[in-house]
Amino acid sequence: MTGAPAWMAPWLPVVAAFAAALLTRGAGIVLSGRVEPETPIFNWFACVGQALVGGLMVRAIFLPTSALAETPTLDRAIAIAVGFAVFFLSRQRLLFGTFAGVGTLAALVAIRGIG
Amino acid sequence: MSIGPPPGDLRRPFRAGAIHAIGAPTIGLFVALMGYGALTRGMGQEFAVMWWAVFTVWSMPALMTFSELAVSGAGLWAIFIAVLFSNLRNIPMVVTALPLVRAEPGIKWRDFVIAQLLSPTVWVHVLVQAPEMPKPPRRRFFTGFAVVIFAAALLGAWVGYTGIEAIPSAIGISILILTPLYLLLIMVSVRQLSGYLALGFGAVTVPWLMQWSVDWGLALGGIGAGTLGFILGGGYKRRGRS
Question: Is B4 a domain residue?
Answer without folding.
Answer: no
